Amino acid sequence: MDSCMCSSNDVPRTGETAAPILELKPVHPPSLDGRAGCETWSVEFSPDGSYFAWSLGYGIVKLLSWPLQDIGGHTSSPDVGVLKNPKDKTLDCGQTVWGLAFGPRPARSAGRTYDANQEALSESLALLLATGLNNGTIKIWEVTTGHLLFDLSGHQGVVRDLVFAPNGSLTLVSGSRDKTLRIWDLTKPGQAAHVLRGHTSWVYSCSVSPDCSMIASVCRGNTKVYLWSLRSYTFIRNLGDIRMFLVSCDFSPDGALLATAAFASNWEIDLWDPYTGDILVTLQECSYCNIEIMDNPIRAVRFSTEGLHLALVTEDRAMQIWEMGQEKPVIETEVRRFSNGLCCTFHPQGGIVATGTRDGHVKFWRVPRTVPSLSHLSRVALRYFTSTHQVMALPIPSKLKDILTYRNLQGHQEARCILHR
Predict the structure, then answer these.
(1) CB 152 within 8 A of CB 137
(2) DSSP for residue 377
(3) Would you tell me which of 35, 72, 285, 317 could form a disulfide with 266, CB atoms 3.0–4.6 Å apart?
């Protein structure tokens, strides 16, 4: 399957309506033949930013070498071209692909290989991609070759979300419609996963804290966030009860915040302190848009790499980006009744966010680069190693504690769009 792209030189200024700088879509969609639909349920950049993974429906995943052709906006012509790069790969998973996750770069070690039965993983592999499938299987692929290494079996329902532990290990966390989280050690693919039970329904989303101490998860029809210990594989506690149905969660890069997305008649983003369970910031849908459009589910929320921005996608907008502490979005797209956004992700080096839609398309948007303040950089550096309770015990002024615990941002605000400000 080929893909095509359109490019644009438009870079929006802060607070303006954005247009995509690039769009990918299937050129020749395969026949359905009883397999998957066309939805792009997941898009991801590799940790080093060298690859982009695109689940474009029908059980197909495209691995595209980054940067894509003309992604820098240097093309002199808006003509559509076909992406052709010898590093690009097409993976046929045979089932609907719901979740994608790139693995780390394992430390190289002589003499470690995997045998013909794929019972052990070679530490010399540069980059892995995990794909969560409709039948409960997780397929593990070698990115540079496109080879299937092995399958992970155990889930009894759709594998909806996947995330690798961000500590350089080969620990993979998966969330499924079978109401469980499973924790896999990919150095021992034949070993049974640790199973975390307790969700009341399908697991929609899971996220691992940067220090790998906690897993956050949300499930269908539930108004509470679940927190689990990745060290002891036990349930820690639920966070709050927001009277909305949670669909997505993501830890900030320093682990001091947990963003959740939820909706009922309107949508809401909450920023939690995962250590205390306090909601620090609440962002709710523009009330005028809610009256005009109604039933506008939010689908995903993601933090940017430096922790300054939040991206979100909803049914009526392809994308919005909010900067921490600001009263209006940095970027928002036009309101359209059926934008059908499903997922979003930031490039690890910043500057770009990608969104996926129900029609199998991917759009890329320019994010204005922001230089983090010294206070933000200091806060992120300290909070990566320090809990809220430890910060509050420090012999420092209360105002400084508020900054370090993000309580200087506390508040509730409405996400007024450009038309209704």
Answers:
(1) yes
(2) H
(3) 285
Place of tokens 């929320």: 301
Phi, psi (5° rounding) for residue 379?
-60, -45
Q: Pull the structure tokens for residue 246.
A: 């949670």
Does pTM surpass 0.70? yes
- pLDDT at residue 19 is higher than 60: yes
Please report, for the chain, the start and end positions of each structural domain, with discontinuous segments joined by +. 3-420
Owner of token pair 């700088």 = 21
Fold of 3-420: Methylamine Dehydrogenase; Chain H (2.130.10)
SS3 254: coil
Q: Tell me the C-alpha distance between 220 and 203, whole Å.
A: 6
What is the rounded CA–CA span in Å between residue 20 and residue 362? 10
CA-based torsion, 185, 188, 190, 191: positive or negative: negative
- Cβ-contact 363, 345 below 8 angstroms: no
Q: Which residues have CB under 8 Å from 30's CB, separation 6+?
A: 1, 58, 60
The residue type at 410 = Q
Give 28-54 pLDDT, tens digit per residue: 555 544 444 789 999 999 999 999 999
- Rama region for 233: left / alpha / beta (φ>0; ψ in -120 to 50; rest): left
